[in-house]
Design a protein that fits this description.
mainly beta; 2 helices; 10 strands; about 45% strand; elongated; about 180 residues; four-stranded antiparallel sheet; six-stranded mixed sheet
Length: about 180
C-alpha cells in the first residue's frame, strides 16, 4: 500500500510538470531619453517618467518581459500577448480620482525557442503611447500612469489559467516654465 501511495504521488507530480511550460515571470518598463533618430537608444529601467506640459514623450518607451521555461523540454513558437492601458485623470483633479481605461495598445511578440529551464528577456518595443497621451491632453485629461499586461498564449495540452504579469509606470507632470 505504501508503494502504491508513493507511486501515485510520483505520477501526480510528473503529470503536473508535463504541463509546465513557458511563463512570464516578470515585466518592467524601460525608458531612453530623447536622442537624435540616427543614434542608438540607451534604455534604463524606469518606475516613472516626467512629461512636459505639451505631453510630448521626451524619449522612447519600451517594456521588457522575463520569460521562463519551467518544463524539461524545449518550447518553440511562444506567443506573448501584450496590452497597454492608461489611468486617466481630469486635468487639475486629485490623482486618486483616476480610472483605468480599456487597453489602447494591443500587440503580440513571438519567441522562436526557449530551452529547458532557460530564462530570456524579451523586448516589447515601439509602444505607441505618444498619440494617446496627446489626444487625452487635448481633451482636458491627464494620463498619470501606464500599465502593461503580458501573458503567454495558451496552447493545446496546457493548463489554465496562465498567470498575467503586469507593471505600472507612473507618469509625472513637469512644472510649467
Amino acid at each position: 500500500m505504501r508503494t502504491f501511495a508513493l507511486l501515485s504521488l510520483f505520477l501526480a507530480c510528473a503529470a503536473t510538470s508535463a504541463f509546465a511550460g513557458p511563463e512570464v515571470t516578470g515585466v518592467y518598463w524601460q525608458f531612453s531619453p530623447g536622442l537624435k533618430p540616427a543614434m542608438k537608444p540607451k534604455f534604463s529601467d524606469a518606475r516613472s517618467i516626467v512629461l512636459p506640459p505639451n505631453s510630448k514623450l521626451p524619449g522612447r518607451l519600451r517594456a521588457m518581459a522575463v520569460l521562463e521555461n519551467k518544463s524539461g523540454k524545449s518550447s518553440g513558437g511562444i506567443v506573448l500577448r501584450v496590452a497597454v492601458s492608461a489611468r486617466v485623470v481630469k486635468t487639475g483633479a486629485d490623482a486618486s480620482t483616476g480610472v483605468w481605461s480599456v487597453p489602447f495598445w494591443l500587440d503580440e511578440r513571438r519567441v522562436a525557442e526557449l530551452k529547458p529551464g532557460a530564462i530570456k528577456n524579451v523586448a516589447i518595443p515601439n509602444i505607441e503611447a505618444q498619440t494617446y497621451l496627446k489626444r487625452f491632453a487635448d481633451t482636458g485629461f491627464w494620463v498619470d500612469a501606464l500599465k502593461i499586461q503580458l501573458a503567454v498564449e495558451p496552447r493545446a495540452g496546457e493548463e489554465l489559467p496562465l498567470p498575467i504579469s503586469e507593471a505600472v509606470l507612473e507618469v509625472l507632470k513637469a512644472a510649467a516654465p
